[in-house]
Design goal:
This protein is α/β, with parallel strands linked by helices. Helices cover about 35% and strands about 15% of the residues. It has helices spanning about 1-5, 50-55, 85-90, 110-125, 140-155, 175-180, 185-195, 215-225, 235-240, 260-265, 270-295, 300-305, 320, 340-345; strands at about 10, 30, 60-65, 75-80, 100, 130-135, 160-165, 205-210, 230, 310, 315-320. It has a 7-stranded parallel β-sheet, covered by helices on one side. Helix 8 links the parallel strand 8 and strand 9. Helix 4 (about 110-125) packs across helix 5 and helix 8 (about 215-225) crosses helix 11.
């Protein structure tokens, strides 16, 4: 968070709640996951009053509802009892010395319409701050069901974070990390196109997330429709993460993902804050230099036709050919574009 303040960018809390360590001067995005940590009742359900008390903090700039993440979409998670210290219990509103579960699904809503109503509730509780949701795309029909709910109700999120299957954490099952979820490029392009199709792309910002560590990664995601990008893995590297894959064991050798005082005392926060800020600055500078060298401004329409991928041994195509966009409002009038027609017909605003 100190690095975010130094570098002038935002910091996402992750789903573990807001601690005093998140409030070191940097702008904060509070992520609310299925466990509702920091805004929950004793039974684990969402507590609006506790949420309101913490969300009105001036440091909190946006609220992100986590539906799923790229490393393990649909799986949920567990914080082992050995890691639930007094401090963690206080931050998360849980009991010391007990396993803490993040369920696979939310209990505050169960349909696309209810999701949008929950977003509206949170926006009202936090005083009108932007509220959106994060997901790793799976069944495309389910996302189109959310789009249909947006059209029918007139409600919409302020932003959507698309996480790619490339996203990772040492606490994810290997099979899920390797095999579940849609890759970021495909998921991002689909969501961008779907929002164009329902005429709401101008109301919803898109955030790309998933193994974004370089300037070229930034440009390629902007080309596919992203308004901004999140970097988790890259920032972890700047902190000194060596991908030891011990995040869930309390034995992280670099002191990043552990509550062991013997290990975390090796992490110099003041030094790491500067490294985080420099990594951000260098990555953005790299993106600008790449775009400048190509004679381009960083607009999706231009970039999409200047970034190429090899699709066969003797075939190279621009992203504009690989990921064609729907026309504005194309899903709101007949005939529905053929590539979307079966999915759009099957989508239901009242059910996932």
């Amino acid at each position: 968070n100190q690095g975010a303040e130094l570098g002038g960018f935002s910091h996402n809390t992750g789903e573990g709640g807001i601690s005093e360590w998140h409030l070191q001067g940097g702008d904060l995005v509070w992520q609310v996951g299925t466990g509702y940590f920091g805004c929950r009742r004793k039974d684990g359900s969402f507590c609006g009053e506790t949420f309101r008390q913490r969300a009105v903090n001036p440091a909190v700039k946006m609220i992100e509802i986590k539906l799923s993440q790229g490393a393990k979409p649909g799986h949920g998670g567990i914080l082992p009892a050995s890691k639930v210290s007094d401090e963690i219990a206080r931050i998360r509103d849980v009991s010391v010395g007990q396993d803490v579960l993040s369920p696979p699904v939310h209990s505050a809503f169960s349909s696309p319409v209810e999701l949008l109503e929950f977003i509206t509730e949170l926006r009202n509780l936090c005083g009108g701050k932007p509220v959106g949701f994060k997901l790793c795309l799976g069944e495309r029909r389910e996302f189109l069901a959310i789009c249909k709910a947006m059209v029918e109700t007139g409600l919409h999120p302020d932003f959507i974070t698309i996480d790619g299957a490339e996203g990772g954490t040492g606490a994810a099952p290997l099979e899920f990390s390797n095999s579940v979820g849609m890759p970021l490029n495909d998921g991002l392009a689909f969501v961008h196109s779907a929002l164009l199709g329902i005429g709401m792309r101008d109301r919803v910002r898109l955030i790309a997330s998933g193994k974004i560590t370089t300037g070229f990664h930034l440009l390629s995601k902007i080309a596919l429709g992203a308004d901004l990008c999140n970097s988790a893995r890259g920032m972890m590297f700047s902190l000194g993460c060596i991908q030891a894959l011990k995040c869930n064991t309390n034995q992280c050798p670099t002191g990043i993902a552990t509550q062991s005082s013997r290990l975390y005392r090796g992490l110099d926060v003041t030094d790491k804050a500067k490294r985080v800020s420099r990594f951000h600055e260098a990555t953005v500078k790299s993106a600008v230099e790449l775009a400048s060298a190509s004679g381009l401004s960083c607009t999706p329409e231009k970039l999409r036709w200047h970034i190429f991928r090899r699709t066969a041994q003797d075939r190279i195509q621009p992203l504009g050919e690989l990921y064609p966009c729907l026309e504005w409002g194309a899903l709101l009038q007949e005939p529905i574009p053929q590539s979307f027609q079966p999915l759009w017909s099957a989508a239901d605003a009242r059910s996932f």
